[in-house]
Write a structure and sequence with these properties.
Blueprint (H helix, E strand, L loop, with lengths): L5 H14 L6 H4 L1 H40 L4 H10 L6 H10 L1 H15 L1
């Protein structure tokens, strides 16, 4: 007597159909379309977890550049001052400081300029 594996196939199909919730039309209900859509989505999710980190870093840099420009500095000069005075704040925390508390950021930059002079 042969083994058909119906139970395992059903489980596998349901796993993909469950992951395809929120998809439209046949991609949600038809197994093959759902599997293709889910596998494609998982590839994009994996790739974009890496891309998100790059995009966030560039956002922090843009914010820092704008905040530095308001204080009469360029972004590269700001980073140079930070390295010179051995301030070990990363771009994320600096951009948070610049957006949420601009007065504190301005006083930090002024103190950096005072140390460099």
């Amino acid at each position: 007597m042969r083994v058909k594996g119906g139970l395992q196939a059903k489980k596998r199909h349901n796993k993909y159909l469950k992951m395809a919730k929120g998809f439209r039309a046949g991609r949600r209900t038809l197994y093959r379309s759902a599997r293709e859509g889910v596998e494609r989505a998982l590839c994009f999710a994996y790739r974009d977890r890496k891309v998100r980190k790059r995009e966030m870093r560039s956002l922090w840099i843009v914010r820092l550049g704008a905040a530095a420009k308001n204080l009469g500095l360029s972004y590269s000069k700001l980073i140079h001052l930070l390295h010179q005075s051995k301030v070990e704040l990363d771009r994320k925390s600096l951009s948070e400081l610049a957006t949420r508390e601009p007065e504190h950021f301005a006083s930090l930059v002024r103190s950096l300029q005072g140390q460099a002079a």
